[in-house]
Structure formats: structure tokens, C-alpha cells
Design a protein that fits this description.
- This protein has 2 domains: about 90 residues, ATP Synthase, domain 1, CATH 2.60.15.10; about 35 residues, no CATH class.
- Helices cover about 20% and strands about 50% of the residues.
- The chain is built from 2 helices and 7 strands, in the order E-E-E-E-E-E-E-H-H.
- The chain has a 5-stranded mixed barrel.
- Helix 1 packs antiparallel against helix 2.
Amino acid sequence: MLHVKLVVPEGEVWAGTADEVVAKTLEGDIGVLTGHTPVLGILAPGSVVAILPRERPSGPGGWIQAAVAGGFLSVADDNVSILARQAVLGTDVDRATARAELAEASGGAGGAESERAGYLRAQLRAAGDQG
């Protein structure tokens, strides 16, 4: 059993026990199961972290998905800490607002706008949109 915490500077987004965690780091995708070797990775900006909680919620496959805007993943002694600059659970995403903000963010050409657009796309993926 894994003990998982997903936190942002403002506080905890999700915490609980899980059977598996999947995240995208700058080195590639990582899957974490009980007994995983210690690791510290940099989360890919605008990616989705998937958590398979021990207490399964209703929904497709029981996975919890969260959009992250970069940060770190730490694994040690069956403790998984996901420290993100920004994060939102897919179930908390307002799809209409995210789509409207994405259309606005995609119109610019700056690096910050590109990061914002990537995070908004990750929010929509975490909420179940394929686009």
C-alpha cells in the first residue's frame, strides 16, 4: 500500500492510500507500486498524474486524475509525495471555463502563455476530455 500526498503551495489537493501512481517526469513516464525504489523526479509541466486509490471512487476504472503544472515527485518507503506548482483534480475542473481560457491562452506567443495552455490542456485531459 502506498501513502500518497498531492500538494501545492496553498495546501493539500489529495491524500490517501493507493495501489498505484503513474506520473510523467522529464525523463518519461513512471509507474509506482508498493516496494518501489526511492526516486526523485521532476514532473513534466502540463501533465496528468493518475492515482489508483485503495478505496475506489465510482467512475471509469476508479482512477483519480490530476492536472499538474510542473513540480516534483518523490518516492521513499512506500510514501509518494507529489509537490506541484499548481494542481487540480479532474473532477474539480470546470470544462467550459478551461476551454475558454485555453482558446485565449493559445492566441498568444509567449512562453508563459504556452505553459498556461499546456496546464489547461492537462486539466481537460484529467477531466476526461480527449482533446
